[in-house]
Design goal:
heterodimer; A: 307 residues; mainly alpha; Ammonium transporter fold; two-stranded antiparallel sheet; 13 helices; 2 strands; B: 438 residues; alpha/beta; Rossmann fold; six-stranded mixed beta sheet; 27% helix; binds iron/sulfur cluster
Chain lengths: 307, 438
Amino acid sequence: MGEYRFLISSSPHIHSGESVQRIMFSVAGALLLPTIAGVYFFGYRALILVVTTTLAAVLTEAIFQKLRGKPVTVWDGSAIVTGMLLALNLPPGLPLWMAVVGSVISIALGKMIYGGLGTNPFNPALVGRVFLTVTFPVQMTTWINPVDGTTGATPLALMKMQGIPTDYVRLFIGNVGGCIGETSAIAILLGGLYLIYRGYVDWRIPASYLGTVAVLSFILGGDPIFHLLAGGLMLGAFFMATDMVTTPVTKLGRIIFGIGAGIFVVLIRFYGGYPEGVSFSILLMNAFTPIINRLTVPRIYGEVKTR
Amino acid sequence: MLKTFSGGIHPPYNKELTKHKPVEKAKLPQKVIIPMSQHVGAPCEPVVKVGDYVKVGQKIGEAKAFVSAPIHASVSGKVVAVEPRPHASGAPVMSVVIESDGMDEVYEGVKPPKSLDELTPDEIKNLIRDAGIVGMGGAGFPTQVKLSPPPGKTIDTIIVNGAECEPYLTADHRLMVERPDDVVLGLRAIMKATGVKRAYIGIEDNKPDAIEAMKEAVKGFNGIEVVPLATKYPQGGEKQLIYAITGREVPSGGLPMDVHVIVDNAGTCAAIANVLKTGMPLIERITTVTGAGVKEPKNLLVRIGTPVEELIEQCGGFNGEPGKVIMGGPMMGISQAQLEVPVMKGTSGVLVLQKSEVKTNEPMPCIRCARCVDACPIRLLPTYLGKFAERGMWDEAERYHALDCIECGCCAYVCPANIPLTQLIRLAKNRILASKKK
Ligand code: SF4
Ligand code: SF4
């Protein structure tokens, strides 16, 4: 029978073939849809921004890992996702060097200081975005109108400050002012549905998040459809509130996460000083994630209730 | 809606390799190595010595404890060694090695008992015990012990496990297609022994021919129902099966009898039928020899103690370069270092994977994707348990119910970060149990 050496290892002896890399690149692929929409509406500047933040994110991670003498793992794709997401959350006219700063902050302060992939409590792209919003408030709120290239207010700001609505079709298609990736609801929806189909996004989060915003804004006398389509809600609901690392691992926990984020969005939009609250709502819920996980540990099979 | 449980996975089943292949009688082995421990409970004591001549069905290992089962010679011939030999579980185990004389002479004491109708419940239990029958699905719990619940525990339901949810394995499938009446006869003996009037035979719906055959075979017997189950791993896990069929949950740390159920494997039923028909104790079983690593995968009727090497030879030898030899299925089986290890009462399959199929991917950090959480049929949080085990946080692991893990392997199978979750949790379980013994 010949002499063979057999591998000895613990069961199971087969694997699904699923990998972190495949998940990350699928997410990046899905993000191409809102990216393309952004480039279509805001022109080549948007493309340059996306490429810049992505490269900067990957480089930052690589340099960080080199400096710490750790293996460079940028090919897991997670830095690419962070870089892309950051750009999609930036106004198209933002100076490139500021975008680079955002990328560095996202990766360095948002992810690497905690220990890298899987350890960060907050969504890194949002950490970068919030940093930029606080540091460069003017540039971060200068919106280009895709129709005529002039600067103007976003639909949410128009509504909040002057009570002017924007029609649904434009919001759905995306030729309105806003961040690169947030304006086209249809592109985001297609990308998000693809990820749900692939099993990389749990539908519970977008469903509970969007549902809560719709119901609450209706109760508070707002226009639910407008609030769903305007601003960064769609992008947040499908691509940022669903970040695996920073959201709960239990099914019930994800629903709670979505509801909580929805409540924060509506509170900020209706009562806060900012017209938009998606980033903050997700970051706030990221902070609650460990508690939510602890409170939603499922009842196991055959669990005997102890008084 | 088919009956099923929560969680679980859909691995590639790869049963096409053998599911249409009728069971073949394996060649009489030249030598058998019969371990004195093939079951849960106390090992047997050898009652033969080197130089003794034994016949088929003769007792060679005596079970002294209550939770144990005697062991019999599976060939006739000379005892050439009584010593520790390699065992599928890894560590060597006291074994009786018999060199076959090729005569296959049956021991004089092997005689058919009275018919089932004439046997009393106690006589049935004794027959089952004396025939050394244990659970043949893998765990190997002595059957007679299961049939004798302690006072205060009542049984109202018998479940025959014909799910065979492990990928690749088709031993029970072929048994149910080819000898459905034996499964029913064995089940009726169990029902009579326990006085239970209600029984279910659970079969995954990827075996429609087995479902048909069993339905035909139970016709005319009251109280026995064939239940098609969703095809999902681990549908044949005892707890999953009980839940799917009865809606009852075995309490944490408890046994099926705590919810008034006894589960027996289809192969176990057939072994009981064999005793009733011929008086022959458990000396052979159907084992699926399969995988891309063997030339001609087969379902073989094998004498207990046959070295795996002989089975692989009978299947045309290795196909390509073998990478892993597994006793059992790919999800819960044990990988082997040597081909000398023998088939035991619980060996439902021998799986050979090719070298190219055996991948060892480096573990990555957990990305908290919760795929393991969704897959766990016990609703544990494997990602947490894995982390606790890595950090030696045994108390935390226990608080998160590590001891309830059934080691089904679903979590490790789905993990995109290649974290050996099942292995880590097994480690945690061992540590927790060890600290309890102190
Ligand atoms: S499947 Fe793996 S990566 Fe995903 S949560 Fe579980 S342990 Fe972490
Ligand atoms: S091996 Fe244990 S923890 Fe993993 S899925 Fe199975 S029961 Fe759950």
